[in-house]
Fold this protein.
Amino acid sequence: MNVQQEKLLDFLAEGAGQLRIPVFQRPYSWGVDQCGELWRDVCRAGKGSLQHFAGPLICMPAEGGARYIVDGQQRLITVSLLIMA
C-alpha cells in the first residue's frame, strides 16, 4: 500500500483521473449537523496557519486510470459541494 499525505485541495486540484464510489459504499447520508461541523472545521483551519486533519481519504486504483474512494466518501462529497456552492 502506498500511503502519502497531501492537502485536500491539492488532491482535488491534481486532476489525476476520475473518482468513483464502489458499489459497496453506503449512499451519501450526511445531514445538516455533520455538514455544519465540517464547515466550522474548514473555517477554523482557514483562519490560522495550522493544518487541520480532515480524516483519511483512502483510494484504490480502478480501471481506466480512475480511483475508487474506499474511505472518506462522505467528507469528500461534502467538501466538493461546498466548493461548488
The mean pLDDT is 83.
